[in-house]
Amino acid sequence: MSHSIALIDVNNFYVSCERVFNPKLLGKPVVVLSNNDGCAVARSNEAKQHIPMGAPWFKFQQIANEQQIVALSSNYALYADMSNRVMRILNQFSPDQEVYSIDECFLDLSGFQHLDLLQYGQQIRHRVGQWTGLPVSVGIGASKTLAKLANHCAKKRAEFDGVCDFNQLSPEQLNHLLADLDVGEVWGVGRKLAVKLKTQGIHSVLDLKQANAETLRRQYSVVMEKTVRELNGISCLELEYAISDKKQILSSRSLVFR
C-alpha cells in the first residue's frame, strides 16, 4: 500500500493567533517581535514585502511607521494554547500524528485512501478554521519530504485552494511542479547546501529527485540519500509520535521564526 502523509501548517501562526483575538488586525500589515521586542519573528503577508524575517526591529521602525505596520510583542502563552487546540483537532482526523513544531503536524492518512483526500484536506482546513479561527494549509505526499513540498505549493499557489495532494497528480504534473521549485525549498537542504548542490547542476527540486542517491550519499551523507529517495516517493522517515525537546516553543531570541 502506498503512503499518504499529510503536513498541516498554520499560516503565519503567531500573527494569525493575534488576529483571532483582535479582528481589527485582519488585512493590516502585522509583525510579531521576539523577547524584548528585539527582532521580527512573524509577519503577515501584508508586512513581508517591507520587513525581512529576523530583522532587528530598531533598524526598521521608520519603515514600519511609514507603512503603518502594527508591531506586537510576542505572547507565547497564547501561542502554546492555540497550538494545543489545533493539535487536538488534527488528532481527530488521524490517530497517527506527529506534532513536528508549534504550528506544524504530520498525519499518516495511508489508511484513509478510500476517501478523496483532497476533500478530506478541505475538511481539516474548515474544521480548524471554524473551531479556532486559524487558517491552515494541507500538503499530502507519499513521504514526509513530499508532504512538506506539497504544503508549500498549497500555501503559495492559489489554484490548490489551500490543499495540495501530490498523490493525485500524474508523474508529469508532479515533475512540472518540482521543476519550478528551487532546491533550497527541500526539507533539510537549507541555503548553504543549496549553493553547493547548484555548483553540481542541481538547481530545482526535480534535479535533486533525478540525481543519483548513492553518489550524493558518498558526497554528503545518508541523510541526503534518504532525501532523494523520499522525493521519489519512497518513505524513509517514519512519524515520530513524541515531540522532542528541541521542537518545543522557546522563549528566547533563538526562537524558530513563524
Give the gist of this structure.
The chain is of the alpha/beta class.
Radius of gyration: 19 Å
- Can you identify the CATH superfamily of the domain at 170-242? 5' to 3' exonuclease, C-terminal subdomain
Strand content: 5-15%
Question: Portion of residues in helices?
Answer: 40-55%
The name of the CATH architecture of the domain at 170-242 is Orthogonal Bundle
Could you list the spans in which at least 5 consecutive residues all have pLDDT below 50?
244-257
Give descriptors for this structure.
DNA_polymerase-Y, Rev_trsase/Diguanyl_cyclase, 258 residues, MutS, DNA mismatch repair protein, domain I, DNA polymerase, domain 1, single chain, alpha/beta, 5-stranded mixed β-sheet, disordered C terminus
In words, what does this structure look like?
Belongs to the DNA polymerase type-Y family. One of its GO terms (molecular function) is DNA-directed DNA polymerase activity. The two termini are 35 Å apart. Strand 7 (136-141), helix 6 and strand 8 (163-165) form a beta-alpha-beta unit. The protein has eleven helices and eight strands. It has a five-stranded mixed β-sheet with strand order 5-6-1-7-8. Strands 3-2-4 form a three-stranded mixed β-sheet. It has helices spanning 13-21, 45-48, 61-66, 76-91, 117-132, 144-156, 171-179, 190-199, 205-209, 213-219, 222-231, and strands at 5-10, 30-33, 40-43, 70-73, 97-101, 104-108, 136-141, 163-165. Among the domains are: 13-77, MutS, DNA mismatch repair protein, domain I (3-Layer(aba) Sandwich); 170-242, DNA polymerase, domain 1 (Orthogonal Bundle).
